[in-house]
Amino acid sequence: MPKIAYLDCPTGIAGDMCLGALVDAGVPLDYLLAMLSRLGIEKEYHLWAEDVQRNGQRATKVHVDLSLNVFAHHETDDRAHTKTEHSAKPHLHSATEQSAATETDVIHAHSHDSDPTRSRHSHSHETHTHGQTSTATDRPHDLVRHLPEVERLILAAALPARAEAWSLAVFRKLAEAEGAIHGVPPEQVHFHEVGATDAIVDIVGTCLGLDWLGIDHLYCSPLPTGGGTIRAAHGRLPVPAPAVLKLFELRQVPIYSNGIEREMVTPTGAAIATTLATQFGAPPAMTLLRVGLGAGSISLPLPNILRLWIGEEKGEAGAREAGEVRSAGAAEDQKKFKTQNSKPSSNAAQRATQTSQTIALLETQIDDLNPQAIGYIYEALFAVGAVDVFTQAIGMKKARPGVLLTVVCHPEGVSACEDVIFRETTTLGIRRSLQQRTILHRKMQTVETVYGAVQVKVAWRDHADTHPINVQPEYEDCAAIARQQQLPWREVHRLVLQNWYQQHSGASKQLF
Hints:
The structure is a single chain. By secondary structure, the protein is an alpha+beta fold. Helix 1 (15-24) runs parallel beside helix 8. It has helices at residues 15-24, 29-36, 68-75, 77-80, 147-156, 161-182, 192-195, 197-212, 242-251, 267-276, 316-321, 328-335, 348-351, 372-383, 414-424, 475-485, 489-503; strands at residues 3-8, 45-54, 57-66, 217-220, 223-224, 229-232, 235-238, 255-256, 277-280, 286-295, 305-313, 355-366, 388-395, 401-409, 431-439, 441-449, 452-460, 470-473. The radius of gyration is 26 Å and the shape is globular. The chain has 17 helices and 18 strands.
C-alpha cells in the first residue's frame, strides 16, 4: 500500500523541526550527512542531533551549526549533550525575518532559544558569532547564493531522483514567493533564504529524509499564523512574514490562530509544506506505523514539537474489513490519490497498489521558431529520456500564432531536457513543475499472427490481477505488416487483438 505521512503542526513548522522529526522517525543521521556532503558545502556547517524535552515531552532537536559554531561545538562537546537547551542554530530565513544582530527583541520561535545574548544572523550575514570575532572571509556561509546557483549545487550532487526533484521544487517555490513580494523574477532573487547554508541543509535534508522513508504522499495540518511583529532589514514587519503569507496565498493554505504571539511558520517550513504536501486538513485515513517528533528551540505554552505521522494509506475496502467508517471529509482528502474503483469490488484492495510516480512537466511558449524545427526537437527530447512531448497551437502577444511546447520527463531528466529546449528553440525561459501521476503495471507480450509476430502492451491494475484493463498492439509493428501485406492498418490492429484474446482466453474481453 502507498506509504503516507502527515505533518501535524500545532506550533507551526520550520526546516530544522522537519529534520528533527525525520531523524526521530528513523532516518539515519549518518545517511543525511553522507548525502548532504555531495552538495560540496560540508565545510560550511556541522549537523548533529540530540534528545530534548519540550513541556515534559521528549523529541529530537537537530542543529545546523555554521562554520564558527562547529568550533564552538567541538570545544564544549562533552558538556553540550548533557544540556536540554543548547545554543540553537541561527536559522536565517529571508530578508523579511531577521534584523541586525544588535536587535534583541526578535527571537525565532523555532530556531532560536530564549537567550537574547546568543547570536543571530543579520540580513548581511556579517554578525554571526558565538562569542568570537571573525571576518567575512573566514565564514563560508557569508556567501549570498542566487537561486540558479543553488539549483546547480543540487543538480550536481547526484542525489536520489525524488529528493533532487523535491529540493528543486521547494527552492523554486520559495524564490517565486520572494520574487512576487519584491517584483522580480525568481532567478533574480538574492535573498538569504536561498543562499543561507542552513536553509540548503534544511530543505535538501528534509527531502532526503522523506525519500529514505519511502513516503509516497505527504499531507499537512492547517497552519497557525502566529502573531506580533519582527524586525527585518526592511524595518518592523508583521507576522506572518511576507514570504510566508505569500506562500499561504499561492497554495490557499487553511490557517488559524493558536493564540501564541510568536513567529510560528518560517519561510523554509512554509515552502516545504506548500510544495510537498498533497493536501492540507485533517489527517488522512491510515494505519499508523510510527510518529517522529521534531523539536523547536524555545519553550512555548504548547509543546514546541512538529509531529510527523507515518503510516500506510487505508482504502475503503480495508476500512470496511476493520469495521471502520470513514467520514466524508476523510474520503474527500483521499480522493485525489485514491486507487480503488468507486464501485464495490472483490479486488478493490489490489487496486490500491497502483504505482504512483513523481513526474516533471516543462513548458514554454514559442512564436518565432521555424516550424520545421519542431519535429527535430521531438526526436532530440526523446533521445535524452523524455517520457512524452506534445505541442498545442496558441495565440500569443501581438496576435502572433505560437506553439506551447510541453515535455513530460522524470525529475532526474529535467536538466537534460531543458538543455535540449534551450539549444534547439528560441525560448528564453522554461516553466517547471512537479506532478503526481498514477500508472498501471504493464509489460510487453508477443502475439503470433499469420503475417508474423507483433508486440502487444498489456496493462493491469496489479500484477496479481488476471484481468488486464488495457491491451494495445504496438503501432510500428502493425504499420510494418500493413505496408508489407498492403492491408489497412486498422485491419491488422483488429487481427492482432483478436489473436491476443484467443491466446489469453481467460482475460476479460471488456477492455474498451
